[in-house]
Amino acid sequence: MDSGGELSPGSLAELEQLVAWAVAEERSLELAGRGSKQAMGRPVLADHVLDLSRLSGVDMYEPEELVMSAGAGTPLAEIEAVLAERGQELAFEPGDWGSLAGGERGRQSIGGVIACNLAGPRRMKAGAARDHFLGVQCVTGHGQAIKAGGRVVKNVTGYDVCKLLAGSWGTLAALSHVTFKVMPRAETSATLLLGGPDEAGLLAGLRAAMRTPCEVSGAAMLPATAAARSAVGAVAGAGRALGCIRLEGLTASVAYRLDALQRALAAPGTDMAVLEDEPSRTLWAEIRDVALLPRTGALWRLSVAPSRAGELADKLAALAPARLHDWSGGLVWLTPEDGTMDMRTALAGHGGHLTLVRAPLAMRAGVPVFEPQPPALRALTERVKKSFDPKGLLTPGRMYEGI
What we know:
It contains 14 helices and 18 strands. The protein has three domains: 1-185 and 372-403, Uridine Diphospho-n-acetylenolpyruvylglucosamine Reductase, domain 3, CATH 3.30.465.10; 188-288, Alpha-Beta Plaits (2-Layer Sandwich), CATH 3.30.70; 299-366, Alpha-Beta Plaits (2-Layer Sandwich). By secondary structure, it is α+β, with helices and mostly antiparallel strands. Helix 6 (199-210) packs antiparallel against helix 11. The strands form five sheets. The protein has a five-stranded antiparallel sheet with strand order 4-5-9-7-8. Strands 12-13-11-14 form a four-stranded antiparallel sheet, with helices on both faces. Helices cover 31% and strands 24% of the residues.
């Protein structure tokens, strides 16, 4: 184990032994599920890669209780296939971020999804991965296995630990097994397409849709260049920017709410079209996976108040013609024409948080990948890191330099 390279435990006991050895020898470890996101975050200089892919397989699934447990290295595609057989799904709709960095589609693991706290277009309604994360078995940087949370929704013991681990990008503990909520898959889906005079007006239409009682589960604005990349003919052939508003549920309910939504959003200069179930699902998979933007070049993710999205529309269009707005305008994916541009500098003073999702190694080393933290929050982050990983051996520096 002291020759460098990759370590690959096949059980929680082996994982505990490997981490304990690394702690005793003061060897740093880069945690990896199936490697789909290793090209994201700050560059990690570690002595070994701790490959968790052998910790795989669904070991508990109770469809009636809407709960599942699986090894952290279980492919997400395998979990989704098991759920589909029972008409269920992950309500937080995680996108395939592995393909964003040029990797193979379908490679990511459930542990990686939770560790990065991923969520797709349905986050506005269903929350992110951490909101569905019920329990965990893991090994901390003390070299000790711990268990937190439970296997039913009503058990709140350990929720704080689960929420700390979700979004920690492998810097606090090595996940062995995770337990999470699942939900019934909607019987049908429909998408209302809005055409209007300008992008700011379309973003206003998305916000107006969210204020209705129609239970919108997706609200995105596609500039013309993004829409043209869609495999859905009505979207690609529109030749202009589109607002996309999704409704899901029972067939009769969707039809009723769709009619109500059309009446609520009717306005001079706005026209509408409807995508039925199959093309609707295709479009939202494209939005979820950011498949409507180029697969090369720097990719930034901007989180901003939806009310600010319209104000920023022209500036963002000038900086990054290749972009799309999700979460009612509150999430913007940007591929700037100048791939070396620091979007934080370009958008200084406009609020929001920026994450550099894809970029060459040198750029990820030179630009803060995650939004820099104010001093008080950074001090808290350092204390949390030291409480889980006192020697700083787990995925060092992945999120913030020196942590």
